[in-house]
C-alpha cells in the first residue's frame, strides 16, 4: 500500500478548506458584541495600535498584558486596516467612534483575515514538513490538526491567541529538523532561539517547545558523537538569541511596565504561585480530560497514546542502534513537545487551549512515520493516521456546528434584547450596561478602557453619553440597568440586593420599587425608585 497523491490534490484540499471556513462564516452570521472577550480585545488592540501609529507614542495595551499575544495584537490592527484603510489610524474620540460605527465591517474583516491567516499557516507548516515525508502523509498529518478538536475550525473564523499555534509548530519544526540534521551548525540554534521567542511572545504556555528543544539537545549531547564544547557554545547562542528577542520586543513594543508585570506573572504561573490558577489535584486533571473529550476533541488521548510509545521506541532503537540519529532526535522533540502541550493545557484547562495540543500532532504523525522505518510499517502508520483523522472528524464535526450555531443564536438574542430595550426606554434615557452583556453598550466601555489611550477614555467619559458601560461610566443614577443573566440568575438573585457587577468598583444593586423585565440573555432593570440624591454606590 503506497500513499501517493497527484500534485494538485494538496492545493485543491487547501482551497476546499478555505471555502468550508468561508461557508461556515456566512452560514452562521454573528455580531462582534456577542462574541467573547477576544472579539472586544480585537477592537481594543486595533484602537491602541492606531493611536500608536498616529501619535508615535507607545500607549500601553492590555491585549499584550497577559499572554503576551503580540502576534494577535499585530494581526488585529492589520485586520482593521484591511477593512477601513487609513481610518484605522487615529487617537481621538472621532477615531474611536469610527471604529465602533464600523464594527460590523471590522468583524467581517477579522473573520476573513482569520481564514486567510489559517490558510497561510497551513502552507507554512506544509513547507516545514514536506521534506520529511511524502505529500500524502503530510496532508494526513495536517488534516489531523483540523479533525482532533472542533476549536481548529471555529478559531480559524473567530481568531484568538491559539489561532497562531500552527505558526509555533512551523518554527519549532524548522528549528528541530535542522538541529537534528546538523547539530553543530550555527543556524539551527539561531532558529531554535527565534522559535522559543515567538512561542513566548504568543503565550507563555507555548514554551513547551523550549522544553522539547532542550530535551532534544541533551539527547544529542548524550548519544551523539559530537564535541561537547562546540555543542554547549551553540546552546548558549540559542538562549542568547531567544532572550534578546523577547527582551527587545518586551521592553520596546509591549512596554516596560506591562512587560515587567508579565515576567512576574509568568514566574508565578511557572512556579504555581499566586495568579497561576492551576489545577490543584489529579482529579482536576482527569476532569479536564473528560471535559475535553465531551467537547468533541480527541487531541489529548491521541498524544497520550502516541507520544509515550514513540519515546519508548527511541529508547529501544537507541540501545540497538537501529534508528538513525536524526530520526531519533526529531521523534524525541516531537514527543516531548506534544506531551508538554498536554501538560500545559491540563494544568490550566480551557477548550480553546486544546488547539496548542492539536498543533503538535502533525509533527508527531510525521515522526511516527519516520520511526516506522520499513515500507510496510510506514504504510500501516499512514493507515492508522487516516483512521484517526476520520474518527476524530466524526466526533468533532457536530461540535463545530454547535459552536457556530451558538454564536449565531447569542447574536440573534442580543439583537432582540436591544430592540426590546429601545422600545421600552426613551432615546435620552441613561442606561448602564454591566459586565459581559452582549451589547454595544457594554462593549464600547470595554474597548475604551482596554485600548489604553487616555485621550479616548477621557473624552468618552466627558461626553457623558446615554448608553454607558460599567467599565467606563460617569452616570451615578441611571434610568435603567442591563445585567447579564449568565452572572445574575435567577431573578431572585437580582432581588436579593447583591452587587450585580462585582468586577467593577461601583456597586450596582436592586432597589425596592424597581421594575425588572426579563430579556432573552439579560435583565432590564428600570429604576422606578428614584429619590433625590440616590445613586449606585
From TrEMBL:
Record's keyword terms, sorted: Membrane, Transmembrane, Transmembrane helix
Coiled-coil annotated residue ranges, if any: none
Spans through the membrane: 70-91, 103-123, 129-148, 160-180, 207-226, 232-254, 297-317, 323-346, 353-371
Name of the protein in question: Uncharacterized protein
Organism of provenance: Bradyrhizobium cosmicum
Amino acid at each position: 500500500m503506497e500513499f501517493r497523491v497527484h500534485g494538485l490534490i494538496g492545493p485543491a484540499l487547501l482551497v476546499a478548506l478555505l471555502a468550508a471556513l468561508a461557508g461556515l462564516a456566512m452560514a452562521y452570521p454573528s455580531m462582534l458584541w456577542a462574541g467573547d472577550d477576544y472579539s472586544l480585545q480585537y477592537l481594543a488592540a486595533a484602537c491602541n495600535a492606531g493611536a500608536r501609529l498616529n501619535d508615535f507614542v507607545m500607549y500601553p495595551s492590555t491585549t499584550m498584558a497577559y499572554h503576551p499575544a503580540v502576534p494577535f495584537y499585530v494581526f488585529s490592527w492589520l485586520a482593521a486596516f484591511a477593512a477601513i484603510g487609513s481610518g484605522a489610524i487615529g487617537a481621538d474620540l472621532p477615531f474611536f467612534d469610527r471604529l465602533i460605527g464600523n464594527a460590523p465591517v471590522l468583524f467581517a474583516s477579522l473573520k476573513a483575515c482569520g481564514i486567510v491567516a489559517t490558510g497561510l499557516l497551513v502552507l507554512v507548516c506544509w513547507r516545514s514538513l514536506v521534506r520529511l515525508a511524502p505529500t500524502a502523509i503530510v496532508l494526513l498529518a495536517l488534516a489531523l490538526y483540523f479533525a482532533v478538536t472542533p476549536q481548529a475550525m471555529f478559531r480559524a473564523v473567530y481568531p484568538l491567541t491559539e489561532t497562531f499555534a500552527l505558526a509555533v509548530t512551523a518554527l519549532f519544526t524548522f528549528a528541530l529538523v535542522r538541529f537534528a540534521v546538523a547539530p553543530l551548525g550555527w543556524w539551527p540554534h539561531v532558529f531554535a532561539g527565534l522559535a522559543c521567542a515567538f512561542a513566548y511572545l504568543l503565550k507563555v504556555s507555548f514554551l513547551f517547545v523550549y522544553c522539547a528543544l532542550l530535551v532534544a539537545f541533551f539527547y544529542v549531547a548524550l548519544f551523539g558523537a559530537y564535541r561537547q564544547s562546540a555543542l554547549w557554545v551553540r546552546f548558549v547562542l540559542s538562549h542568547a538569541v531567544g532572550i534578546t528577542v523577547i527582551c527587545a520586543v518586551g521592553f520596546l513594543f509591549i512596554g516596560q511596565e506591562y512587560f515587567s508585570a508579565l515576567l512576574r506573572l509568568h514566574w508565578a504561573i511557572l512556579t504555581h504561585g499566586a495568579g497561576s490558577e492551576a489545577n490543584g489535584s489529579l482529579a482536576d486533571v482527569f476532569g479536564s480530560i473528560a471535559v475535553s473529550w465531551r467537547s468533541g476533541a480527541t487531541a489529548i488521548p491521541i498524544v497520550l497514546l502516541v507520544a509515550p510509545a514513540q519515546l519508548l521506541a527511541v529508547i529501544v532503537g537507541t540501545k540497538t542502534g537501529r534508528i538513525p540519529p536524526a530520526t531519533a532526535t526529531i521523534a524525541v522533540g516531537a514527543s516531548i513537545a506534544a506531551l508538554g502541550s498536554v501538560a500545559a493545557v491540563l494544568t490550566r484547562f480551557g477548550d480553546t487551549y486544546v488547539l496548542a495540543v492539536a498543533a503538535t500532532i502533525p509533527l508527531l504523525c510525521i515522526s511516527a512515520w519516520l520511526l516506522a522505518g520499513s515500507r510496510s510499517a510506514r504504510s500501516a502508520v499512514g493507515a492508522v493516521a487516516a483512521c484517526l483523522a476520520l474518527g476524530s472528524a466524526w466526533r468533532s464535526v457536530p461540535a463545530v456546528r454547535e459552536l457556530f450555531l451558538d454564536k449565531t443564536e447569542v447574536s440573534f438574542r442580543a439583537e432582540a434584547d436591544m430592540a426590546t430595550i429601545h422600545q421600552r426606554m426613551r432615546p435620552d434615557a441613561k442606561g448602564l450596561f454591566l459586565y459581559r452583556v452582549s451589547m454595544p453598550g457594554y462593549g464600547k466601555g470595554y474597548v475604551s478602557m482596554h485600548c489604553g489611550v487616555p485621550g479616548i477614555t477621557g473624552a468618552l467619559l466627558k461626553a457623558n453619553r446615554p448608553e454607558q458601560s460599567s467599565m467606563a461610566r460617569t452616570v451615578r443614577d441611571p434610568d435603567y440597568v442591563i445585567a447579564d443573566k449568565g452572572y445574575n440568575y435567577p431573578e431572585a438573585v437580582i432581588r436579593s440586593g447583591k452587587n450585580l457587577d462585582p468586577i467593577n468598583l461601583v456597586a450596582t444593586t436592586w432597589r425596592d420599587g424597581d421594575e425588572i423585565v426579563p430579556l432573552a440573555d439579560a435583565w432590564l432593570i428600570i429604576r422606578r425608585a428614584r429619590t433625590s440624591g440616590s445613586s449606585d454606590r
